[in-house]
């Protein structure tokens, strides 16, 4: 419900917690940012400002004379000071309230690499850190920054609307849809039964976006995450809907089990901008054999065998698999990219 995300940073500058909505604003996954140093996220020029706000007296952390020395570790507050409870102001003190602005690294395409955030909150004691002093005795809970991070520039009504329509889908490893949340059913118009049609789900993707999506699909199978992918999905009303998606593998017992995709609807203008930035290669260039991706057996009259063999090579590198329950009409595997295009009604273009 917040126009922002919750952030908890220890006095040493380590991210202890972030709410999952950090992905909507910075593009980083919730699990991926902790327990990393906030220095990795904060713009270099803002490190000093961020570091002094982690200290109760707004001093850059250094160990004054007569106070305990800092614990080791190269972090944003690498010289953070540990205090006893009687050395700190009471937890409800105005000394501990914080409100400041910092620029954070942002992976989203519309941010120029950084996003200015207003952090508002207070320093509070953070129990459960289980830290020990040099003599081995347990240290009392130390202060940490509990803040709500909101973009300095308020979002437009359109951005608020699209943010509220972020939806998630679940897929098999070859991208066959398995499930869709309630917002996804509103955006796309399909029921789950309609999404689980014969095919790998590529039959819902625009032909000009298929290879682009397939490349990121392969990247996800290798690295666990696809990165931001902008493409067009076919709605039940036979319209193309631009979405910005990020897919990631979910593992069970060390093996990939299924794929979860977080998707944000875009307006056509945003999608068009992404399309212009993308390195364009037409979907099925017969001259390069890309027409044969996932489909090496499809006969192409008039094309020599070397192209088909090249297509077979491309196919072997991909991750899609044919479905045993799907009939192959005219020898075209419905789980292939070519089969996915053949399933689409030409009128939608």
Automatic annotation (TrEMBL):
GO terms for cellular component: aryl hydrocarbon receptor complex; nucleus. Residues 179-262 form the PAS fold-3 domain. Residues 312-321 have a biased composition (Basic residues). It holds the Pfam family PAS_3. Keywords: Activator, DNA-binding, Nucleus, Receptor, Transcription, Transcription regulation. Residues 305-335 are annotated as: Disordered. The keyword Transcription regulation applies. It comes from the Eukaryota. InterPro entries: AHR/AHRR, PAC, PAS, PAS-like_dom_sf, PAS_fold_3. It is found in: Nucleus. One of its GO terms (biological process) is xenobiotic metabolic process. GO terms for molecular function: nuclear receptor activity; transcription cis-regulatory region binding. This is Aryl hydrocarbon receptor. It comes from Pelecanus crispus.
